[in-house]
Amino acid sequence: MKGKRKFSLKEIYLMAYNFLLFCIWAITFIVSVFSFNQDSSYRNGWKIPFLWSQIAHGVMWMDVVHAIFKVTKSNWFINAVQIMSRTMVSFVVWGIAKSNCVGWWTPMMFFSWSITEIIRYGYHVLNMASEELPKWIVSLRYSSFYILYLTGFAGESITNCMTIMRIPLSSEIGIKLPNMLNVAISIPFIIRVYTLTSAIYFPDMYKHMIVQRKKHLSTNPILPSL
Fold first, then answer.
1. pTM for the whole thing?
2. Which residues are CB-neighbours of 207 under 8 A, at least 6 positions away?
3. Distance CA 221, CA 215 (A)
4. What is the rounded average pLDDT of the residues 182-211?
5. Is it true that the peptide bond before 168 is cis, omega within 30 degrees of 0?
């Protein structure tokens, strides 16, 4: 009879961290469903889902910290790029545009984000707590991006474009001169640059996920390679 597996402090911490984010994203999904049913006109600007996404993405920056200090084996730069993209939408874009940037694409974006992260963080918890996971769980973890990453990126891009259309470049939103740092920052300009940059690097990020899928499903995958 095998003895009970003992977990290190690092493993306990990571399981607690991943479970916390699993719960936050589960709540985000639930409030998104509620908002979808109750605010079909988008007049309220999806305040509650955006609030929960801000909480989630704020906590998710610990993914980058973990990678930098080798607590996890993930690539800190890839993590930072992915989290930064959503952080821009959750904090900056929605922060200045509110209901002007929401529409039919908003639930698509939130459902894509939340389902993706529920799968990802749930997988990490199960993977650390179990000696071996069912193949379908591993396949779900590394195959769901084929659709969810596309729909999530589409939702982010439309949100950004709607903001660009409704907030002119000449808008004075940002940090104006004169100030102590003698630096002027135009938020509308930053959103335009970020939107263009995201579109340019999207193919590379998508290819990276395909490579990761092949790497983790290379041995007897339950689903055929796509």
1. 0.88
2. none
3. 11
4. 88
5. no
Q: Which residue has the tokens 């995201």?
A: 198
Distance CA 19, CA 47 (A): 24
Alpha-carbon distance of 68 to 149, in angstroms, equals 24
Domain boundaries along the sequence of the chain: 9-216
Per DSSP, which regions of 51-137 are E strands?
A: none
For residue 191, give the amino acid letter: I
Q: How many CB atoms lie within 10 A of CB 37?
A: 9
| Closest CA relative to residue 108, chosen from 145, 149, 151 | 151
Beta-sheet strands, E only, within 69-167: none
Tell me how far the alpha carbon of residue 74 is from its chain's centroid.
15
Q: For residue range 90-111, what is the model confidence (pLDDT) as tens digits?
A: 999 998 888 788 899 999 999 9
